Amino acid sequence: MIRVGSRLLALAGGVLLGATLSSMPASAATTSPLSADVTVTSDDTATVSDVRWELPADAAPGDVVTLALPEHAGAAAGADWIASTGVSIGVVRLDDTGTAVIELTEAAADPANRRGEMVVRSVLEESAPTIVSSASTADAVLRPGEVPGPFFGAPDRSRGNKYGAWTDETETRARWVLEAPRGPWDTLDIVDRPVGGQRVDCTAGVRVRAAGETDPATGYLVDPVDVPTERVSVACDESGVSVRVQPVGDEIVEVTVETVPDAASSELANAADFAAQRSEPGDAIRTVSFVPRLGVAPSPTPTLPPVVETPRPGLPDRLAETGTDAAPPAFIGAVLLLAGAAAAVRRRRTRSRA
User: Fold this and answer.
1) Which candidate in 22, 163, 272, 325 could, as Cys together with 31 as Cys, close a disulfide (CB 3.0–4.6 Å)?
2) Burial class (CB in 10 A: 0-12, 13-18, 19+), 317
3) Alpha-carbon dihedral 117, 119, 120, 122, rounded to 10 degrees
4) What's the distance, Cα to Cα, between the start and end of the chain in Å?
5) Is 238 strand, coil or helix?
6) Mean pLDDT over residues 346-353, rounded?
7) Of residues 83, 60, 70, the one with CA closest to residue 38
8) Cα–Cα distance, 346 to 12 (Å, whole number)
9) Number of C-alpha atoms within 13 angstroms, CB side, residue 268?
10) What UniProt keywords apply to this chain's record, in alphabetical order (predicted)?
11) Distances (CA, A) of 168 to 130, 142, 162, 176, 270
């Protein structure tokens, strides 16, 4: 999930951040800051901080310690803050400013649990884009002698709208105005389909304009302007008109089409289909995790010096080297000593009898 690779910008050595670990007991008026050694690596989506920490000497269960990690924007709550012994000494919460707040538990009183190393990973990911679409149909009927008037209230701008009017008093030509749903859109397609008894006059042209405002009283577009030709494509024949506009901003696109009735002053009908679509970027989601590095490195095993035997002074070199030829003389001396002692005992006994 975290992509920390060749693009990681490692800050060599243990970077001493402005991050400070401070004790904030609920009943104390002072704060005991402690600098934390933090090594940071990051790329486009992930930030990883290796935090080596130790509690302040006066921090006690019930107190709060804070660790500033400005690289890790985004809130996270409910993770255990674990010492090098593997024991949780509190619950850590990360606020939107990147400050980790740790509420100490009773386990923090044990001297073995007052230091450790924590790896804080912050990963920014974006969810899949959302496709928003709109589809609607608008119908209009134009009757002999009909004169267009103002709308009664603003029309629904989330869908397409359409109305028609005679171009002159002879009622030999009709003008149809199609208004698309308000953008923004990546693409907007409008298809106009005049009903029988009339034909589209392509020689009169198909006009494509847009406006960002409407009159609140009449509902008409305010000061529409021609859409740039590079954003518009038009297909026209006597049976209908197709218009594509891309992209469309926060505006309402208006298409004007003229038709010629087979007979003057005829009742005419017209329908138009509107289809629009846009892709909205996914939400940015930041995930923060706290992973402890457990275990304390054991003390080095002491190295004992080798035992070296040295010969006693006064011994012949040959005895010092082998240690074997000294045994027979020592044995003979002991035998003679015992023999002498036995002879002395016999002499005392002889004298006593005499």
Assistant:
1) 22
2) exposed
3) 170
4) 115
5) coil
6) 54
7) 70
8) 95
9) 31
10) Cell wall, Membrane, Peptidoglycan-anchor, Secreted, Signal, Transmembrane, Transmembrane helix
11) 47, 13, 19, 13, 19
Q: What is the model's pLDDT at position 84? A: 93
Query: Mean pLDDT over residues 176-198, rounded?
Result: 95
**What region does 295 belong to: left with phi over 0, alpha with psi -120 to 50, or beta?**
left
Tokens of 138: 């608008």
pLDDT digits 0-9 by tens, 117-175: 999 998 888 888 999 999 999 999 999 998 876 655 668 899 999 999 999 999 999 99
- Quick one: pLDDT at residue 350? 52
More confident residue, 225 or 39: 225
Cite the beta strand spans of 95-160 per DSSP E: 99-104, 115-126, 130-142
Longest Cα–Cα distance in the chain: 186
| The amino acid at 85 | T
Angle at 86 between CA 82 and CA 91, to 5 degrees: 25
Q: Read off the tokens for 195.
A: 């009903």
Query: Cα(151)–Cα(116) distance, rounded to whole angstroms?
Result: 73
Compute the mean pLDDT over every residue in the chain, rounded to the nearest whole number: 79
Does residue 5 surpass a pLDDT of 50? no
User: What is the distance between the alpha carbons of residues 98 and 75, in angstroms, rounded to a whole number?
Assistant: 8
Q: What is the pLDDT of residue 340?
A: 59
246 exposed, middle or buried (CB, 10 Å; 0-12, 13-18, 19+)? middle
Tabulate helix, strand, coil % of the chain (nearest 5). 15, 45, 40
- Give me the residue label for tokens 């674990």: 82
State which amino acid sits at residue 124: L
| Ramachandran angles phi, psi of 20, nearest 5° | -130, 145
Residue 17 pLDDT exceeds 80 = no
- Kindly state the average pLDDT of the residues 67-85: 84
pLDDT tens string 279-320: 999 888 888 889 999 875 444 444 445 544 545 555 455 444
**Ramachandran angles phi, psi of 14, nearest 5°:** -85, 110
Which two structure tokens, joined as six digits, stand for 157? 């701008």
